[in-house]
Design goal:
243 residues; mainly alpha; 72% helix; globular
Length: 243
């Protein structure tokens, strides 16, 4: 399996595993108990590793959310706690989710190792959110399920920031990409007056997905061919273990 094929085949797990805790009601229940209003906990949690970065920079890293909405969320989150604290609290919810929802029939130790090697090999030039999460402390004392979840999250930020650039280069506006891929999320992300999707829009989005795989492939080249095959199998097993 080529690095590019591996990038494509692991996308469901890389994009999906961390999103489970980000969409889990218990995450926002925990946030509400601390004074967060809702998606301010999400935005502040993801961006907290950037410190007091300007909201426009954060919106650029997120890529697919309406910038004014991102600014509002960050202001709300920063009124509750400093950015680094929000990031740590948000990820703690992810670790709790992993302990509760990930099954025992996956080699999490091996999966965490392979994910970590891909992340370590990635070029972080122009990818500030990924770079910040990659350098953030890892949960070394929480077991390999939690470590794997953390590393899935780091790779999710890598893929997202690379995808932001690929979407732009394909001639798509951020809101167009959202409407193609996740139309139900568009209002949640702060978008209104949603554009119509046509075959041309879908074709450009497909090209952006393919280009994302091409751009991220060098990180997967850190693994040999058999290890890339193994990573795909383990990612599929990880997704199947979620309960």
């Amino acid at each position: 399996m080529t690095p590019e094929d591996c990038a494509a085949k692991t996308t469901p797990a890389v994009s999906g595993m961390a999103s489970y805790f980000m969409l889990d009601g218990n995450t926002y229940k925990a946030g509400a108990e601390l004074g967060y209003a809702g998606l301010d906990f999400y935005a502040g949690g993801r961006a907290g590793v950037l410190g007091d970065a300007d909201a426009d920079q954060v919106a650029g890293c997120f890529g697919f959310m309406e910038p004014g909405t991102v600014r509002e969320w960050l202001e709300q989150a920063r009124a509750v706690a400093p950015p680094a604290q929000t990031a740590a609290t948000f990820m703690a919810c992810g670790y709790a989710w992993a302990d509760e929802h990930l099954g025992d029939d996956v080699d999490w130790t091996r999966l965490a190792d392979l994910l970590g090697r891909v992340s370590a090999a990635a070029d972080d030039t122009g990818l500030p959110l990924f770079a910040a999460w990659r350098s953030a402390p890892e949960p070394d004392d929480r077991g390999d399920k939690v470590l794997a979840l953390h590393r899935f999250h780091v790779l999710r930020e890598l893929r997202n920031e690379i995808h932001v650039g690929a979407v732009r280069d394909a001639g798509l506006a951020p809101v167009e990409a959202v409407v193609v891929k996740s139309p139900a999320m568009a209002p949640m992300f702060g978008w209104s007056d949603l554009p119509e999707v046509n075959e041309g829009t879908r074709a450009r989005h497909d090209e952006a997905e393919a280009e994302t795989n091409r751009r991220i492939a060098p990180a997967y080249a850190a693994l040999d061919e058999s290890e890339r095959d193994e990573l795909v199998v383990l990612c599929e097993a990880a997704l199947a273990s979620v309960g």
